[in-house]
Amino acid sequence: EVQLLESGGGLVQPGGSLRLSCAASGFTFGAYAMSWVRQAPGKGLEWLSGIGGDGETTHYADSVKGRFTISRDNSKSTLYLQLNSLRAEETAIYYCAKDLGYLIDTVALGSWGQGTLVTVSS
Amino acid sequence: SALTQPASVSGSPGQSITVSCTGTSSDVGPYNLVSWYQQHPGKAPRLMLYEVNKRPSGISYRFSGSKSGNTASLTISGLQAEDEADYYCCSYATSKTYVFGTGTKVTVL
């Protein structure tokens, strides 16, 4: 059974940083692309970033490009998202999701974690 | 920019409903790479369809998809109480990113 467990969320001040982790199990982690998606309270889903199975290819939404960095450690079956220069409006639940394919080109996020809440407030 | 979906769609049990998802020539138009997600309150999203009309294992045949030009559609036939949820479309974009729709609340009357 595929399991994705996010951690690292919490309260951070505007302008601050946070590193999210997503521990994966139940599948060959390096064989699949992964993505981060967030959802502000009462709002819709927003795709943030994706990374290919080998970690070499990454893509970002314009809203986070240059501030967020996605990475993965296939030896630890763990996905990461470094969040810098956070803004109040980025308060949201951050989900990691497993793609159906190896590259970031299927738009098929077949498995999701339960999310970790990031609150940006002074 | 987010794909455009109606804010809400409703139907009676047993009926069929369709949720539209309108994009542009930079996302929905050029690719048959549209997926749909169901999200119940307080829960993580669940993949319902991918590549416009393919169903992952375990997803009911009552869910189907189509695409014409810049607009994709999700149809739920034989509407059931458990189908009441938020639904989001998602498309691949020429910028090599994924873009979600604005979301539609489906209500079973």
**Largest β sheet strand count, sense and barrel closure of chain A:** 7 strands, mixed
- N to C succession of SSEs of chain A: EEEEEEEEEEE
Radius of gyration of chain A: 13 Å
C-alpha termini separation of chain B = 32 Å
E-strand count of chain A = 11
Q: What percent of the residues of chain A sit in helical stretches (DSSP H or I)?
A: under 10%
Structural commentary:
The complex is a heterodimer of chains A (122) and B (109). Chain A has 122 residues and is mainly β. Helix content of chain A is 0%, strand content 50%. Chain A has no helices and eleven strands. Chain A has strands at 3-7, 10-12, 18-25, 34-39, 45-51, 58-60, 68-73, 78-83, 92-99, 109-112, 116-120. In chain A, strands 2, 4, 5, 6, 9, 10 and 11 form a seven-stranded mixed beta sheet that branches. A four-stranded antiparallel beta sheet of chain A has the order 1-3-8-7, with no helix packed on it. The mean pLDDT of chain A is 97. In chain B, strands 1, 3, 4, 7, 8 and 9 form a six-stranded mixed beta sheet that branches. In chain B, strands 2-6-5 form a three-stranded antiparallel beta sheet, with no helix packed on it. Helix content of chain B is 0%, strand content 44%. The model of chain B has no long low-confidence stretch (mean pLDDT 97). Chain B has no helices and nine strands. Chain B is mostly beta strands and 109 residues long. Classes of the chains: A mainly beta (122), B mainly beta (109). Chain A binds chain B through residues 35, 37, 44-47, 50, 59-62, 95, 97, 100, 104-110, 112-115, and chain B through 2, 33-35, 37, 39, 44-47, 50-51, 56, 88, 90-92, 95-103.
